[in-house]
């Protein structure tokens, strides 16, 4: 897993101590904002989807980027239709909900706690209040990048086009009629029932996207609503591809998903204009460069790699997160009831272990200051599916200074605060061993 040898630990710990910036208050983020400079892309990671401090520190960073550097939006590892409803709320659109809690409680895809949590309520209420003083074209948005929402995206298009455009409406009906025999409640039903059959609904969702793009000049003047309709068609197209490929499996579905997320980032940036800037919230496994991990040897790419390759000249800052011990919200298997679980102390010789040995306090480290850590070292990744009793498989061999531009280490963390008490019971297969 790691090339760190016991005799090297004191030397490594000393180097990390020298490179560390203590992280306690918002003022301690000054050095990070200076390093971000004029970058247009800031990617904020997390080592789990169920840790309170990952959300609150990303919120603190995001607020400062929005206020001080005019960032245009936050885009997250979430479904487009759900997040677009929240986008309408934070921008104060008519009939967009009474409060963030009301909107977020409608996020019912497992794992519900990822976005239906009190930490996200606090962030989006702040955005709602902040946006009130801004003109419509400057309001800060909140968007979902993921590919899972096949049926929900088609339903959203159907509702929008019902009165807007009868011609485009018929193409939505045709696509939905194609999927109907598979009794779709989740895309996995389509994957299961179409496996081994020389049939798919690819043509129907392609036609849907083409029809919407061709008919866009005839839609109403709400430019973001039009973009939303087109994006839902784009999601449906890639979701069909994702689910159809699922049971043939392997890295192909992972790459479809991260290409979709990267393409959605590009679409959002183009939509918001040449001076737009974006904050991306995703798991470390997505935002840290795949080429610096064992993902590369499996043929896997991720959004952190794709954004850096395409936009490096515009400024890309990828910030990983991790902790030594604490608690986390997760499930023992996919679709299971969420549990507060104990996160064991990090394994000896892991990245998190060395950071703890460098001082049991929260800290920020820039990769430019630890370039000599140019060898693989185990770096913990906790997914929504987690069993603390099987820790060994949760460590990803990583060349840290090549995976991120900066890293935030939080010594002891606690579980996220979910809005939902029980799971929704919907089933979705994992797309990678960590379930991220």
UniProtKB/TrEMBL annotation:
This is Erythromycin esterase family protein. CDD domains: Ere-like. It comes from Flavobacterium aquariorum. Transmembrane segments: none annotated. Gene3D superfamilies: Biosynthetic Protein domain, EreA-like (biosynthetic domain), EreA-like, domain 2. The lineage of its organism: Bacteria, Pseudomonadati, Bacteroidota, Flavobacteriia, Flavobacteriales. InterPro entries: Emycin_Estase, Hydrolase/PRTase-associated, UCP036794_erythomycin. Signal peptide: none annotated. Pfam families: Erythro_esteras. GO terms for biological process: response to antibiotic.
